[in-house]
């Protein structure tokens, strides 16, 4: 949510974060409006560049913290069999409506990614738009990474991003307001450097209905994230900066992590879902 407020501030008013249970009940109805300037097709483009770089050809994709489907639907349009997972029923309702309107067949599941359960393993699991920052403890990150590893096919990939620590810490504290004919949105945000925690409190009035939400994101250094991925049984293939293949630096805005479930007894992975080069070749 930290990124949403920053984008909203550019519109005249200021977050991208993972919400506590119950959050996004009101914001779900206007989330796509607030993120209208984001090129989510570029996220799918970058994902496919990663897949080409690694040499992996997935068929079944699971998109964690999918929200209203902003990164899920672009992947579905490219022919992947995608399932979106999110904790918010309200966000998923918007995602389902968007998929139906676009004529896309997409599965959606309302569940907590820390306790992820899938009927069959995925070739690729993603978590974009800093959904991982909403996990506020290293224990929750490790628990999620373990569930991801468990639900990947051998050789399957996990791609996620985090708002970088320096960028999150650099968001200016304070209050702001966005006013549109049917919407008034007020927010107060601040960053706690000792906890590496950004907190945003929103009060909105949409078509006469008032909602209040609090969103929090925690920043994690790359060495912590990589250590937890490894501890969960995943092989870290890269930590990249801002939609590139440059190594992540403290100055980066967003860090992308690419990890793979290793194949027991093999140094390379073949993809059972679709023919193509082995992962890592």
The N- and C-terminal alpha carbons lie at a distance of: 37 Å
Ranges where pLDDT stays below 50 over 5 or more residues in a row are: 3-22, 268-281
Class based on secondary structure composition and strand pairing: alpha/beta
Main beta-sheet strand count, sense and barrel state: 7 strands, mixed
Please state the average pLDDT score: 87
- Rg over C-alpha atoms, rounded to the nearest angstrom: 18 Å
* CATH class annotation of the domain at 40-166 and 220-261: Alpha Beta
| Second CATH tier, the architecture of the domain at 40-166 and 220-261 | 3-Layer(aba) Sandwich
How would you write the strand order of the largest sheet?
Answer: 4-3-2-5-6-12-11
Number of strands: 12
Oligomer: single chain
What would you call the shape? globular
Instruction: State which percent range the strand residues make up.
Output: 25-35%
**Which sequence of SSEs, written as H and E, runs from N to C?**
HEHHEHEHEEHEHEEEEHEE
The helix content, as a percent range, equals: 25-40%
């Amino acid at each position: 949510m930290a990124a949403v407020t920053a984008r909203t501030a550019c519109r005249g008013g200021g977050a991208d974060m993972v919400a506590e249970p119950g959050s996004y009940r009101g914001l779900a109805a206007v989330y796509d409006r607030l993120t209208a300037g984001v090129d989510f097709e570029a996220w799918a483009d970058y994902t496919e560049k990663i897949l080409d770089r690694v040499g992996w050809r997935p068929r079944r994709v699971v998109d964690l913290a999918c929200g209203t489907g902003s990164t899920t639907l672009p992947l579905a349009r490219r022919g992947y069999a995608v399932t979106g997972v999110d904790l918010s029923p309200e966000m998923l309702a918007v995602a389902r409506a968007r998929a139906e309107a676009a004529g896309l067949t997409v599965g959606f599941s309302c569940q907590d990614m820390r306790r992820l359960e899938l009927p069959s393993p995925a070739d690729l699991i993603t978590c974009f738009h800093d959904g991982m920052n909403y996990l506020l403890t290293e224990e929750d990150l490790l628990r999620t990474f373990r569930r991801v590893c468990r639900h990947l096919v051998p050789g399957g990939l996990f791609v996620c991003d985090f708002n970088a620590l320096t960028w999150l810490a650099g968001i200016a504290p304070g209050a702001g307001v966005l006013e549109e004919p049917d919407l008034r949105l007020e927010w107060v945000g601040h960053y706690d450097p000792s906890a590496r925690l950004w907190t945003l409190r929103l009060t909105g009035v949409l078509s006469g209905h008032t909602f209040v939400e609090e969103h929090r994101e925690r920043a994690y250094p790359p060495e912590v994230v990589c250590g937890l991925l490894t501890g969960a049984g995943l092989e870290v293939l890269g930590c990249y900066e801002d939609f590139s293949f440059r190594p992540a630096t403290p100055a980066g805005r967003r860090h992308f992590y690419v990890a793979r479930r290793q194949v027991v007894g093999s140094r390379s992975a073949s993809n059972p879902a679709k023919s193509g080069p082995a992962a890592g070749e």
